[in-house]
Amino acid sequence: MLVTSTAYLASDTSHRIDHPNSSPRHIRVVGIGIKGADSAQTLNAAQMRHVRSVSLPASAGPGASMEATLQCARDQGVDLTSELRDADLIFLVAHAGDDVSMAPAIKQLARQQNVSITGVLVQDRSAAQDAASLEVLRASSDMLIIASDNDYVEDMLQELGA
């Protein structure tokens, strides 16, 4: 089974970045929910190359339409479609207990542009598992990372050359 999965992943090119590895990657860090938005705001994106952060503390609510979600983002001063337009990678950051209901709409926008999403759920090791947020982020991400503190996001971006 592992060989089959590996062969499939190697052949699936739908989310590959279409330019050489030597070209810079344009990364968007989208913080959703109150703590996730705070994480995106405090990220030192200004000192990172080709990284922009977007903060969305409020949401249109679970099951909201795409238009309602985009309007909610506009009400927070974010044109989500244009913010994500030229991204090569999207990091979707939330903390345990955050409202992550914007994640499916962000996934839909990313799919329209063939951009992969890495979800990051920051969760204190001693805290109880946030199953609801975990389920939504898992379904809205190509890869999901559970981190124990906020520094992980910045460390990951630095390792990517940002």
Compose a concise summary of this entry:
The chain contains seven helices and five strands. It is of the alpha/beta class.
Write the layout of secondary structure elements.
Elements lengths: L1 H10 L15 E6 H10 L8 E6 L9 H10 L4 H5 L4 E7 L7 H10 L3 E7 L8 H9 L3 E5 L3 H9 L3
Parallel strand pairs: 1-2, 1-3, 3-4, 4-5
Structural notes for this entry:
With 162 residues, the protein is an alpha/beta fold. It has one domain: 3-Layer(aba) Sandwich (Rossmann fold), CATH 3.40.50. α6 (131-139) links the parallel β4 (116-122) and β5. Mean pLDDT is 85; it is low at 1-6. It is 39% helix and 19% strand. The N and C termini lie far apart (35 Å). It has a five-stranded parallel β-sheet, sandwiched between helices. It has helices at 2-11, 33-42, 66-75, 80-84, 103-112, 131-139, 151-159; strands at 27-32, 51-56, 89-95, 116-122, 143-147.
